[in-house]
């Protein structure tokens, strides 16, 4: 490794102007990135990690920020150091994309929806490298092959909306790598992706780094990803750097209290071995925490039999059904009172549709759903409305599921008003009780959703789901968008409520470590079918279906001495769930490999 760092941030201070005066986003932060090294910057939302990277690109100015102090030294290719904090924007245009590449968090907003993938990939090459159109297109094809995109010739002519999330993220990586930058900044590049795609993209970035010698600045809040990628780690908290060191040292011997609590809040795969029932996580700084296991009962609450949901694909002049999307295909399971069944799988495997079909938010094609003796499928609209008292849903994105124009007190009270359960002072007492229950101060009742953080909004969504005292809650990726420490608090809250109120959860997630922590039973879904179903310990410690095994292999483990290599990952591309109207799938057939542990024997396409 060369001694001279590619980028040095020295005593950086960034301020944002607001109505109430300047707010400091980053205060006195210093670190450097050497050639061929990956430096991970970790911290929760609002800790200033993205602001530091946007300052280095001088993009922070477009978001209302100003660099109020410090130096941003960048070593350009000619070997001259420049301070990016005070160069002209013209020079920044030459550096951006050419010498510093950036991968943004949200691939859909990083790509332009009106231009083809090919046009966006060749733009940088033609601007910075002066390539002709044919040369740039040939290089773009090469890049798509490097990031392992299937059928690259076809992809160049497609638009971003025609690609899946993982593919879009690969295109963004290819764009960032196009001009072989000296420094690559990756801002949470895998948060919105599935475990399997995340594993492939991390392995891909690691390989590209080794082949090109690029330095990488990797921003994330996922400690397992840090263990997989980092050489050095910088921990940030409220705009300040609180700790820095080699990755093994940070994981094995953290010095700062914040780093310790961050590591304690990460659910680790394998932590629940030998435990019969789920139990809350031990959180640092929380007094008298009840960590007793939650066994639940053996009484069945929900029975789902042969549930099938398909979506018609219309086409042609008369808008006839030309094909069907087989979203959920012959799914059966039961959930006991006070227990949690988790459905896991990748995006598009049908787990959210299965959850919505049970509540009849999506009308299933066929099947039986029985909730505590009530046949949900046979109900008319009025009966269904009554049945929804017993089953509620927590959606993935709490901001989208809350009304931006209503105060929180009204949003939590609304279900009780709708069903005439309470009014007047009794209503306000119950709402205040729900706020206490989800550990939110009562002073928040007059606030609006935009005045809350993501974790607080998710708590409001939980309070609203609890308002009607339901028996079953379908939690659709309820913690996937949250920071680790907030995620740990929300999970503990959900488990505490389960122990207190005897709630049953259908927990939909793609995070295997979280699923291992909260579940009594686990169902693994692939292409609309459950391929493996059984008690948590059986599925996690003895996975029998090849897809479950591949899924377990892909999960990054929060241990820097136990890294995955690209050869560990052998995913087959997922076949299409769309079939012609004449197609009749086989029914699902299962083998019972141990008591209560079932594995699909029908060909699932994997």
Describe this protein's structure.
- It holds the Pfam family oligo_HPY.
- 33% of the residues lie in helices and 26% in strands.
- It has 606 residues and is α/β, with parallel strands linked by helices.
- It has a domain at 301-337 and 345-384 and 518-571 and 578-600: 3-Layer(aba) Sandwich (Rossmann fold), CATH 3.40.50.300.
- Helix 4 packs across helix 5 (133-146) and helix 17 (454-466) runs parallel beside helix 18 (484-501).
- It is globular and about 75 Å long.
- Rg on CA atoms, Å: 25 Å
CATH topology (level 3) name of the domain at 301-337 and 345-384 and 518-571 and 578-600: Rossmann fold
Number of strands: 23
Detail the poorly predicted runs.
Answer: none
For CATH, the homologous superfamily of the domain at 301-337 and 345-384 and 518-571 and 578-600 is named as P-loop containing nucleotide triphosphate hydrolases
Structural class: alpha/beta
Number of helices: 21
Strand portion: 25-35%
State the separation between the terminal residues, measured CA to CA: 43 Å
| CATH class division of the domain at 301-337 and 345-384 and 518-571 and 578-600 | Alpha Beta
- Strands ordered across the widest β-sheet: 16-17-18-13-19-20-23-22
Mean pLDDT: 88
| Assigned CATH architecture of the domain at 301-337 and 345-384 and 518-571 and 578-600 | 3-Layer(aba) Sandwich
Major pleated sheet: 8 strands, mixed
Helix content: 25-40%
Inertia-based shape: globular
Main location: membrane
Domain ABC transporter: 9-263, 302-552
GO biological process, one term: peptide transport
Pfam families: ABC_tran, oligo_HPY
């Amino acid at each position: 490794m060369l001694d001279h760092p590619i980028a040095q941030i020295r005593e950086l201070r960034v301020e944002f102007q607001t109505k109430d005066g300047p707010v400091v986003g980053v205060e006195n932060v210093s670190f450097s990135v050497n050639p061929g090294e990956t430096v991970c910057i970790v911290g929760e939302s609002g800790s200033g990690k993205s602001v530091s990277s946007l300052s280095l690109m001088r993009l922070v100015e477009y978001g209302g920020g100003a660099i109020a102090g410090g130096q941003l030294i960048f070593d350009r290719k000619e070997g001259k150091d420049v301070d990016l904090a005070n160069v002209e924007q013209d020079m920044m245009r030459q550096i951006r994309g050419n010498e510093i590449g950036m991968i943004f968090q949200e691939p859909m907003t990083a790509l332009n929806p009106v231009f083809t993938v090919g046009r966006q990939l060749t733009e940088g090459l033609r601007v910075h490298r002066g390539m002709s159109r044919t040369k740039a297109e040939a290089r773009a094809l090469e890049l798509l092959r490097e990031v392992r995109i299937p059928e690259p010739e076809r992809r160049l002519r497609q638009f971003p909306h025609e690609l899946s999330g993982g593919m879009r993220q690969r295109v963004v990586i290819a764009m960032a790598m196009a001009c072989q930058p000296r420094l690559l900044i990756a801002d949470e590049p895998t948060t919105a992706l599935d475990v399997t795609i995340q594993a492939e993209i991390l392995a891909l970035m690691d390989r590209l780094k080794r082949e090109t010698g690029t330095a990488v600045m990797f921003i994330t809040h996922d400690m397992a990803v840090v263990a997989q990628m980092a050489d050095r780690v910088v921990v940030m908290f409220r705009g300040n750097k609180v700790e820095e060191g080699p990755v093994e040292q940070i994981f094995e011997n953290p010095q700062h209290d914040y780093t310790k609590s961050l590591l304690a809040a990460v659910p680790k795969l394998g932590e629940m071995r030998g435990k019969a029932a789920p139990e809350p996580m031990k959180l640092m700084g929380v007094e008298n925490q009840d960590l007793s296991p939650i066994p639940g009962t053996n009484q069945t609450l929900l029975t789902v039999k042969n549930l099938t949901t398909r979506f018609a694909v219309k086409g042609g002049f008369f808008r006839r059904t030309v094909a069907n999307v087989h979203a959920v295909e012959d799914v059966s399971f039961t959930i006991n009172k006070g227990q949690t069944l988790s459905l896991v799988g990748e995006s598009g495997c049908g787990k959210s549709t299965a959850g919505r079909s049970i509540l009849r938010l999506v009308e299933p094609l066929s099947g039986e759903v029985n909730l505590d003796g009530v046949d949900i499928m046979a109900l008319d609209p009025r009966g269904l409305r009554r049945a929804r008292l017993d089953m509620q849903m927590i959606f993935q994105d709490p901001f989208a599921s809350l009304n931006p124009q209503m105060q929180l007190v009204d949003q939590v009270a609304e279900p009780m008003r709708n069903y005439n359960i309470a009014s007047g002072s009794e209503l306000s007492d119950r709402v205040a009780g729900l706020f206490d229950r989800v550990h939110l101060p009562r002073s928040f009742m007059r606030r609006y959703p935009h005045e809350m953080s993501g974790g607080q909004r998710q708590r409001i969504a939980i309070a609203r789901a609890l308002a009607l005292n339901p028996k079953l809650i379908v939690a659709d990726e309820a913690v996937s968008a949250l920071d680790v420490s907030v995620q740990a608090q929300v999970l503990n809250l959900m488990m505490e409520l389960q122990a207190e109120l005897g709630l049953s959860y259908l927990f939909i997630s793609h995070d295997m470590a979280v699923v291992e922590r909260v579940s009594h039973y686990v169902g693994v879904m692939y292409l609309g079918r459950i391929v493996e179903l059984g008690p948590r310990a059986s599925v996690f410690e003895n996975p029998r279906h090849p897809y479950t095994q591949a899924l377990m292999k892909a999960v990054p483990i929060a241990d820097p001495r136990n890294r995955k290599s690209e050869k560990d990952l052998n995913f087959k591309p997922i076949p299409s769930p769309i079939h012609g109207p004449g197609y009749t799938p086989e029914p699902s057939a299962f083998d019972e490999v141990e008591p209560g542990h079932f594995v699909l024997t029908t060909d699932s396409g994997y």
